[in-house]
């Protein structure tokens, strides 16, 4: 009986090791890219704030927390009467410029999104940029969907599942080994493969809980379109007010912003308004989106919809009053990006986030050194790792330059070709490898 139990445990460990090995090997580059881009993505608001201030010289001269922007917003509405959406984004800090998110038709029949900056002290427009070509948009799009509009987001979700599998199997394989050590030990005088293996185990076990949270939330966010379609899940706060007037009349209605903000404070005092979105479809409303301090949820998910006529409440969505399913839905992004505990927490997220990238590189190095030891491949492991790393950084750099200096559409097109081409090549390689190994085993059995 003891022998049977021992064989079962041994077979289970071999299965976990194979899963850890092959899943890590085939998804290592993807996990590495997500690790690097995720470490930068947690600082998107801070990075963008610096760029807006120094690159566009856009700041506010407002002496108090109240910003003035009514005249500038009205001038934009008159200048671009064909706009599809116009949202006022209030700054988080007094010295920041008020931002208008303006979406309007482009010459090719699509839509162009602009960020227009307003000095909240003098109520004047001080600059603008194409939102799609900004560094902030690049960092988010490259991390969330690899800049690929077809399979990118789903691939990121699969990468999250892969990281979860690698983290769990790593714990099952090395957990008991690590528990036997009073203090984690790195064998410094051993062979390179052994030293890398020690660091791989130590960092993998130390950051396992964090990587598991990132993996599961990343899998949910990436696979969300499929999951919501399969299980018929609706976005919890997707309220659509009824159409009560002509769209052009709706656009022409003037919004008294100070009265609007007073109504918001009266109806939803805990809400910190961030987005003020007047309707343009004939519903005659203004949507106020914002945050409630001290809560761990996605940004700007609390909503107050007010009438343009008398600023009475039409709809209110307070996340604190919602059922568990709603709160679970909106906690994912906050947990994934660490956007709930200040700059120190984001720095910790970035540091821990890089561990999954290190684990990808160290795991690949261990694999290559093992192959070299068995004389399966004569290539130098560090040279191979260097080539893979340079190619990965080259991909990120090229897409960034195309996006920032040529255009988002061209960058997305290039990324789609690269990502989907590599995906098809990887699937083809895996199929050919499986068929070759199967044929080799059949030939050996026949002999």
TrEMBL record:
Pfam families on file: PepSY_TM
Spans through the membrane: 21-44, 155-178, 199-221, 347-369, 385-407, 413-436
Keyword Lipid metabolism recorded: no
Domain of life: Bacteria
Keyword annotations from UniProtKB, A to Z: Membrane, Transmembrane, Transmembrane helix
Tagged with keyword Chloroplast: no
Protein name per the record: Uncharacterized iron-regulated membrane protein
Organism listed in the record: Parapedobacter composti
Taxonomic classification: Bacteria, Pseudomonadati, Bacteroidota, Sphingobacteriia, Sphingobacteriales
